[in-house]
Amino acid sequence: MVTWPAATPGGVHPIEAESYRILRSRIDLSRLPRLSRDVTERIIHASADFDYATDLVCDEEALTAAVDALADGAAVVADVAMVAAGITGCPVVCKITEPLTQRLARTANITRSAAAVRLAFGEVGPGAVWVVGCAPTALHEILARDVEPAFVIGLPVGFVGAAESKDALRASGLRALTNVSEKGGSAVAAAALNALLRAATGDPATGDPAAGDPAAGDPAAARALPPDRAGPAPASDDEVMP
Fold this sequence. Notes:
Layout: H1 14-26, H2 34-47, H3 52-55, E1 56-57, H4 60-71, E2 76-78, H5 81-86, H6 99-108, H7 112-124, E3 129-132, H8 136-145, E4 151-154, H9 162-172, E5 176-179, H10 186-200
Parallel strand pairs: 2-3, 3-4, 4-5
Antiparallel strand pairs: 1-5
Helix pairs in contact: 2-10, 4-10, 6-7, 7-8, 8-9
């Protein structure tokens, strides 16, 4: 069970708010279901790449399951340190830099990313939320090891194996967020997880007034969390995170 950090007062940083204003002046994603829209906007905000509006493969039911898992304290696992660094508001398991990961990779003749997945699964077990933003081999290992994830964010990047690994994830039937092309990366994977974390903590998406939140004013509908698992602290002036 994950213990979430206490919230600190504060709102959205003006730079982030202006970024969303510009984004919404250039593309209208209001047709999308709420979580699909939140995730897509967050990824475009992090990447300045509007192609993600048609490249992402979002399933609202699966995204809802991810939010519920995060709200219930599911462990979050990242494939590489850059993904972990971009995730704000919850602890992240990442084994990529550990000496044991390097030894396992040599012994088993697998990549460090695949070895890190094996070690992380040994620590967190089934029911985790996995975030892959770099290595296709990490995504293949998640599928091969049958880690029984609550949700997988599969957005590895590159010309060798990235699109194929995402195809395999979609074919697996696991609850997941992916994209079709070779693009992806640490920033967009972290951005997707951060969007889901906002929803899990009951924090409205950037730019959405509380009055526009379907759960606003309805305690039964809101995903309220205990005070010790409230939302992430706001970024500092120079840290507008993904």
